Amino acid sequence: FFFSSRRRHTRFLPVSWARRCVQETAHYPDYAMIVVSATQGVNQVAENHFKLALAFQVPITFVITHTDQVNKDKLSGVVSSIKMLLKKEQTNKIPMLIRDESDVVLVSRTLKENIIPIFLVSCVTGYKLDLFQTFLNLLPASNEWTSNQDMHTEFYIHERFDVNGQIILGGTVIKGQIKTQQTLFLGPDEKGKFRNVEVLNIHCKRVSVRSATCGQTCTIAITLGKEASEWLAKNGQPIRRGMVLVDKKMNPKAYYEFQAEVRLFDYNQGSVQLAKSYEPVINSQTTRQVCVIVGQEIDQEQESYNKSQRKKKVKAKSADILNQHTNSTNTSVSYTHLTLPTIYSVQISVVAVSLKK
Question: Residue 228 and residue 113: Cα distance in Å, rounded?
């Protein structure tokens, strides 16, 4: 197991939000585990991490700790708040409170479908830690790497090093296998072109190997062809993170425009607007790139549901204002100052994005 922890305090959210997106995609996580303290309950940080896990479409598990410090009523309230969070985000996920070993076996087989297990543990008393450890041991490995092994080679570059004049590239094999003496395409450059390079040697975990398979992180030493050498000498150091090494048979092409499905959520409860000409930052694996939105199409079904939810909240707020003014001498209420709640989660079906040069 490889656990990657995230900062949970609210003061770190503005600084580390983009960094967390980059780290999540770079590590290719198989599962997401959200730890909730029974004494604090589900706060805004836990809610944002849940939305982030939904955006990456990874199986989610909730673990409630500090169960020895609260009573049963408080604990049941935390579990209810998790269930309310699932309803709020309109997911088809079904929460399941883990009670015995049979529940553990069931959720370990159906976690990737629509089940979200909820564990109640205590590190002080050891309450149900054995069930949680059994759950971790029963979790299956991701099938994505297995299905990608027979594809053409694709190596994503995370870092670039220079050792005694030798170019070293560090990254992850996304598809296929990468072998020594193999000729690959390196790119794209600023013009979207790819150039020939040859793999000299490969190191995995500081051990020299002949090949690296799909899912492995390694470093490789490359030698440049004539065209690539001239390109490198002319442009300085154009090899950067975010480039790829791919098989020639893939006939790779680079694009400045693409379509994406976007889920909006705001960590600071502020106003969120997504419109044409807006310039967000794309976080893709280890790279960040400013882009500009050139068009959008909103999911009408999702938007109609959000409008109905906002009307319900406004009616409830109006009723509260009327109740507050019942015993007042001035019973007139102005509804012109009632503002609709901000939509924090909107599903955008198609968004056309253009990378800025």
Answer: 46
